[in-house]
């Protein structure tokens, strides 16, 4: 076996850091003990804390980082999203994160190919290809969160990918950086030619290995057999039999190499068709055996996917919101197959569905087979499947982790293999294990909660894994890692699966690329037989809101603070660490340093920079809203300010008048000294006050008018058929009562004026509740942890809205989306609260004649609209009113979060850093929250208005519309 020498670093981490500060900006080097812990966490059940986290933003910076680590003999690990499940993205060396700066994506050849950098989220690639009816081949369950770098480095596949559409099979070209700093671009003839000269020894070595393998008929046969299955165990040895040219071999070895041979900096995929017609069926069978037989019967039918879910798996999700009722009624032992069919048109889809029915004739099902094309039901079926792994984590015992592994059996032995695997679980006492997976490929995931603290648990786990490895890899000739990558959990078993000869071949490959074992050491290949039992992640009880979290990282892509401080997952990591340290009697020096750091920086990182927007809950498979945890922290921290909150709440009308007065004074000041000087002066005051005084920004609009227009109330005796249809209660939020139109747009009007104009034009009688200037939904208080006053204001509002709506007879329209979300669960059930976009889309559009404006409009869907499922309605409403609509990518929340855009302006600046480039060329922008519009205006170069103003400008009343008498009412 080729020797690989692993040596210790020759310089200290401080010396390495000093070396790197000469090559990178200091802010790209993370040394803080808390952030190193947070940033070093991935979705696996292992934990290592990196000695340094580096965030290069260009390929040249990456070359510099690799060079410095090589010079100092420091091990390094490359990281994209960190959603990997087997510990391949953690290190106690140098963690190199490829995020910002690595998100370039280009569609080529009318969608036939797509060129991607490693920081592009997989789902984004598919969004870009969708207009061409194409997608990338890999489709892992985490595609909305994982990044291309991880997809390629793990050769991830997924539900509909199989073995034909994974990265290895759909690779067009790639660009990479090797350990010696050399950059190779296989799409560039000059780069390839230069590489052939400079790295002739490496290419000769690969070609020699290829020749040896192809002449060893038994080994070549074994390799081909192994890749008939899904297989990511060890290096891609199929590259040695599929290709003869060294460059081709090298490129395909990089796929699935988990960052142990080099770093992929760009990859071009050959895209695959995405048929427009889709249908799915949840088919229930009495037992696992019959489901396996059904899978084999479906093998030749051309179905897109067959996903198996055993009874334990279905039980873990059956009580989640929206799950089909029949899940709860299934008998023990029942097993479901989610069968997905896709075609170009309706007749072909029907033929495919009929083919499925014929294939399953004679196999007993618990219910008749019923396919659906309904998008809601279709999405629900896939939600059942994709939510299985995190759902198990949510119901595990506190203090335990969740183990997930994925194996593949030869499809013809699937039923036999499943039975043997199930028996192994029972033999070792894992009665709560569940099975699910891509049955069409013989690929099954097994999941179970696992504690390691109690005596004997490590030994029990070790015995199970040894049995499973023997059973799958040897007895059945399957693969131990079908699609999740080898990682740390299966590295000790690679030789068992492949045999001594093939394993030695893998070490030879490693030696050609990385003789010093610096690239992600012990991942993929290891000589430590107990590696899978070491560095296990602690998951102590910390907070009831987040204790269910398994740190999968699905939440991170939508967090506005993800590149400023922490993501929701990372906030949970640090909260757990604080709880763990508090329970220890003795601390190591490193733990003591971490504990002390909590006092210095945790408040800013965990609390101050959290927008508490709830977007994390929309991506979390079990609905964890980390913002709720942060709000609870704020409530505890602001106990002494509750009396001040009570006074403000009791005099809320006066407080808003003072705010409007402040805006008038600011307008006067900017008129005298100009925006630039005004902004600099405000920044100085903001910093001098310790960020307690809000910072003025040029996007702050003028004060709202003191008086608003109000149409006549309907008489108490109005008919019940006319009242609910033609009358509406309008509640103007405190934001729209304070902030008026943007002064830089002469045509803009205050939101209150616009709402009343639209309602009047659409033929509605409008009722405004009494004391509108005093009322508030409570968000101004709850967002700061002042829940007592928030509850009081919600009760006040509830009382007045009941009176105004005649106990719910008339719907209640809020003009700001966040407020409509805030009152959910706080108002009387009889009140029919209307969110502004939903009301405009569903009720105003049908009453108005809309002529799209000849303009290009940028749309910002607020986090509250996302959470209410109104994204599509929002975009549809904008498209009805404008010639062209642009929805910027990667901006789910602007980070303004009430007044955080003024108190923590760096949060909004970080969240919207990429906005201006994406909306260049737009005439203006629209949203549905006055404060969010301010943040978007500040960072886009456009002026953002309420989307209701866009509708107002584009619309005229229909014949059914009406105009009613108007009068003024004071706020």
TL;DR of this structure?
The protein is α/β, with parallel strands linked by helices. It contains 41 helices and 29 strands.
Ordered list of secondary-structure elements with their pairings:
Layout: H1 13-21, E1 29-30, H2 33-39, E2 52-54, H3 59-72, E3 76-79, E4 94-97, E5 105-108, E6 113-116, H4 122-129, E7 134-135, H5 148-153, H6 167-170, E8 171-177, E9 183-185, H7 189-198, H8 200-215, H9 217-226, H10 238-242, H11 246-254, E10 263-270, E11 272-273, E12 277-285, H12 288-298, E13 305-309, H13 311-317, E14 335-343, H14 346-359, H15 375-386, H16 388-394, E15 401-408, H17 414-427, E16 434-438, E17 443-450, H18 457-475, H19 494-498, H20 500-513, H21 568-582, H22 589-608, H23 615-619, H24 626-637, H25 642-650, H26 652-673, H27 675-688, E18 707-711, H28 723-726, E19 727-731, H29 734-738, H30 751-761, E20 765-767, H31 779-782, H32 787-804, E21 812-814, H33 817-822, E22 833-834, H34 836-844, E23 848-850, E24 853-859, H35 863-867, H36 871-881, E25 882-886, H37 900-903, H38 905-911, H39 915-919, E26 924-927, H40 930-940, E27 944-946, H41 947-954, E28 955-957, E29 966-970
Parallel strand pairs: 2-4, 3-4, 19-20, 19-21, 21-22, 24-25, 24-26, 26-27
Antiparallel strand pairs: 1-2, 5-6, 6-10, 7-11, 8-9, 8-10, 12-14, 13-14, 13-16, 15-17, 16-17, 18-29, 23-28
Protein name: D-lactate dehydrogenase (cytochrome)
Pfam families: CCG, FAD-oxidase_C, FAD_binding_4, Fer4_8
InterPro entries: 4Fe4S_Fe-S-bd (IPR017896), 4Fe4S_Fe_S_CS (IPR017900), Cys_rich_dom (IPR004017), FAD-bd_oxidored_4_C (IPR004113), FAD-bd_PCMH (IPR016166), FAD-bd_PCMH-like_sf (IPR036318), FAD-bd_PCMH_sub1 (IPR016167), FAD-bd_PCMH_sub2 (IPR016169)
């Amino acid at each position: 076996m080729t020797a690989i020498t692993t040596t210790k670093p020759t310089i200290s981490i401080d010396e390495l850091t000093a070396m790197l500060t000469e090559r990178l900006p200091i802010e790209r080097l993370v040394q803080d003990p808390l952030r190193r812990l947070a940033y070093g966490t991935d979705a696996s059940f292992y934990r290592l804390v990196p000695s340094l986290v580096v965030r290069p933003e260009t390929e040249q910076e990456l070359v510099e980082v690799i060079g410095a680590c090589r010079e100092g003999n420091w091990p390094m690990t490359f990281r994209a999203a960190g959603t990997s499940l087997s510990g391949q993205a953690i290190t106690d060396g140098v963690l190199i994160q490829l995020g910002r700066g690595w998100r370039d994506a280009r569609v080529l050849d009318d969608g036939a190919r797509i060129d991607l950098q490693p920081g592009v989220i997989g789902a984004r690639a598919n969004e870009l290809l969708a207009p061409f009816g194409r997608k990338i081949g890999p489709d892992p369950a985490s595609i909305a969160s994982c990044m291309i770098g991880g997809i390629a480095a793990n050769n991830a596949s997924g539900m509909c990918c199989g073995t034909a559409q994974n990265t290895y099979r759909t690779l067009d070209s790639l660009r990479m950086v090797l350990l010696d700093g050399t950059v190779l671009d296989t799409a560039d003839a000059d780069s390839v030619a230069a590489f052939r000269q400079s790295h002739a020894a490496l290419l000769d070595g690969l070609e020699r290995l290829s020749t040896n393998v192809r002449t060893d008929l038994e080994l070549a046969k074994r390799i081909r057999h192994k890749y008939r299955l899904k297989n990511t165990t060890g290096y891609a040895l199929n590259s040695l039999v599929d290709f003869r040219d060294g460059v081709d071999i090298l490129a395909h070895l990089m796929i699935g190499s988990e960052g142990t041979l080099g770093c992929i900096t760009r990859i071009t995929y050959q895209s695959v068709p995405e048929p427009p017609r889709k249908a799915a069926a949840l088919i229930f069978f009495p037992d696992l055996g019959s489901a396996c037989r059904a899978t084999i019967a479906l093998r030749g039918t051309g179905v897109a996917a067959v996903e198996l879910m055993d009874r334990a798996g279905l039980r873990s999700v059956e009580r989640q919101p929206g799950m089909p009722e029949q899940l709860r009624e299934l008998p023990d032992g029942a097993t479901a197959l989610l069968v997905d069919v896709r075609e170009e048109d309706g007749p072909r889809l029907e033929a495919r569905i009929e083919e499925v029915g014929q294939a399953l004739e004679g196999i007993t099902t618990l219910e008749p087979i019923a396919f659906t094309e309904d998008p809601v039901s279709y999405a629900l079926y896939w939600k059942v499947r994709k939510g299985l792994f995190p759902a198990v984590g949510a119901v595990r015992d506190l203090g335990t982790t969740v183990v997930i592994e994925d194996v593949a059996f030869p499809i013809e032995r699937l039923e036999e293999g499943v039975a043997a695997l199930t028996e192994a679980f029972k033999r070792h006492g894992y009665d709560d294990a569940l099975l699910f997976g891509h049955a069409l490929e013989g690929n099954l995931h097994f999941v179970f909660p696992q504690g390691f603290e109690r005596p004997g648990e490590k030994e029990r786990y070790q015995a199970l894994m040894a049995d499973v490895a023997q059973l799958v890899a040897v007895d059945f000739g399957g693969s131990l890692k079908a699609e999740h990558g080898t990682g740390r959990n299966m590295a000790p078993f690679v030789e068992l699966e492949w045999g001594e000869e093939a394993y030695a071949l893998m070490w030879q490959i490693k030696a050609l690329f990385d003789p010093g074992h610096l690239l992600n050491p012990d991942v993929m290949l290891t000589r430590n037989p107990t590696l899978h039992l070491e560095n296990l992640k602690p998951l102590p009880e910390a907070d009831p809101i987040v204790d269910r979290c398994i740190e999968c990282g699905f939440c991170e892509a939508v967090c506005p603070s993800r590149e400023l401080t922490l993501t929701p997952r990372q906030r949970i990591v640090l909260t757990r660490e604080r709880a763990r340290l508090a329970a220890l009697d003795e601390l190591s020096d490193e733990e003591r340093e971490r504990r002390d750091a909590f006092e210095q920086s945790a408040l800013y990182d965990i609390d101050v920079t959290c927008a508490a927007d709830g977007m994390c809950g929309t991506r979390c498979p079990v609905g964890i809203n980390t913002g709720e945890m942060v709000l609870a922290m704020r409530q505890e921290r602001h106990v002494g300010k509750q009396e001040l909150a009570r006074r403000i709440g009791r005099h809320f009308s006066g407080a808003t008048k003072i705010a409007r007065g402040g805006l008038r004074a600011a307008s006067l000041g900017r008129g005298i000294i100009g925006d630039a000087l005004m902004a600099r002066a405000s920044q100085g005051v903001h910093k001098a006050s310790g960020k307690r005084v809000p910072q003025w920004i040029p996007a702050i609009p003028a004060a709202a008018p003191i008086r608003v227009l109000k149409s006549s109330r309907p008489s108490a005796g109005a008919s019940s058929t006319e009242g609910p249809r033609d009358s509406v209660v309008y509640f103007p939020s405190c934001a729209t009562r304070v902030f008026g139109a943007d002064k830089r747009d002469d045509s803009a009007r205050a939101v209150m004026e616009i709402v009343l104009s639209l309602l009047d034009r659409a033929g509605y009688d409008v009722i405004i509740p009494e004391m509108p200037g005093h009322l508030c939904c409570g968000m101004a208080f709850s967002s700061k942890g002042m829940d007592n006053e928030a509850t009081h204001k919600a009760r006040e509002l509830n009382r007045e809205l009941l009176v105004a709506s005649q106990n719910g007879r008339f719907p209640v329209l809020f003009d700001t989306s966040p407020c409509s979300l805030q009152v959910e669960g706080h108002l009387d059930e009889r009140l029919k609260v209307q969110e502004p976009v939903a009301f405009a889309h569903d009720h105003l559009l049908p009453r108005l004649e809309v002529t799209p404006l000849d303009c290009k409009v940028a749309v910002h869907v607020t986090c509250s609209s996302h959470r209410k499922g109104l994204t599509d309605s929002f975009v549809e409403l904008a498209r009805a009113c404008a010639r062209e609509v642009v929805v910027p990518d990667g901006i789910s929340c602007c980070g303004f979060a009430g007044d955080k855009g003024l108190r923590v302006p760096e949060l909004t600046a970080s969240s919207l850093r990429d906005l201006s480039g994406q909306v260049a060329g737009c005439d203006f922008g629209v949203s549905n929250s006055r404060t969010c519009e301010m943040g978007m205006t500040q960072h886009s170069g456009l002026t953002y208005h309420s989307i209701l103003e866009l509708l107002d400008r584009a619309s005229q009343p229909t014949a059914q519309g009406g105009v009613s008498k108007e009068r003024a009412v004071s706020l």
